[in-house]
Amino acid sequence: MTTAVETAQRIAPWCPVTVGANLISAGIPIRPGSYVERDGQRFAELGGIFLRNSEEILLAASHSPFGILSMAAHEAWHALEMRLADEAKAAVMADLGPAFAPPEHPYYADPEERRAVAFDTWCKRFFVGMPGFSSSTDLDAIFLAAWSGELGKILSDR
Length: 158
Description:
By secondary structure, the protein is of the alpha+beta class. Helix content is 49%, strand content 16%. The chain has helices at 2-11, 65-83, 86-96, 106-109, 111-127, 138-148, 150-155; strands at 17-20, 23-25, 35-38, 41-46, 48-51, 56-60. Strands 1-6-5 form a 3-stranded mixed beta sheet, with helices on one face. The chain has a 3-stranded antiparallel beta sheet with strand order 2-4-3, with no helix packed on it. The chain is globular, with a radius of gyration of 15 Å.
């Protein structure tokens, strides 16, 4: 839990991070098998969420230790991306290319979610102790700067 909070705060240092038992929400596209039913209504079960208005990151403690780390990186990317230049977002999308073609589900078709999923997937290498990336592509350079906290320090003043 502590590592997840530290990860999110390193990536997006201006964001407070709150950990709760679990998170559910109405009005968010529900992925198959990722919902709870209450009073006949389906609610999306969330591992985390970034609240744009307050710039707060919420994480669900109900996730596995690896899952909460992944969610911390994912939600922190959303915070970081709000302050990121459009050119950097375009560079990430260009490097994702067709190899990361999203399924038909609206969650994965959204460009913001695609970038956040790509970042948390990229970060998983570090979580399992794999060596770092070279800065061979714009995506690697941007993600490495985000993961290290370097980008967050630069964007903190925006």
